[in-house]
Design brief:
- This protein has a domain of 54 residues.
- It has four helices and no strands.
């Protein structure tokens, strides 16, 4: 059985993120602008991840997973 490397996990994560964005766009196509915007905001990958993914070293990409970035966001919100 092949083991997943950090690089392959990062590739999978990015592929899933892109797939999710394409699915959102397909769901909102042809709808009024306010519905498209609300849907994108509710369903899209959080801006926190998108702002950081390009500058995150491969060895730290796990920090961008939802269960890992929820804590930093809750600390900054208060």
């Amino acid at each position: 059985m092949a083991m997943l490397t950090k690089e392959s996990l990062a590739t999978i994560f990015c592929s899933l993120a892109l797939g999710a964005l394409y699915a959102i766009e397909e769901n909102v196509r042809g709808k009024p602008p306010e519905i498209r915007q609300a849907t994108r905001q509710a369903e899209a990958i959080p801006a926190y991840v998108l702002e950081r993914i390009a500058d995150t070293p491969i060895t730290r990409v796990a920090e961008l997973l939802p269960w890992n970035y929820a804590a930093p966001l809750s600390k900054t919100a208060g």
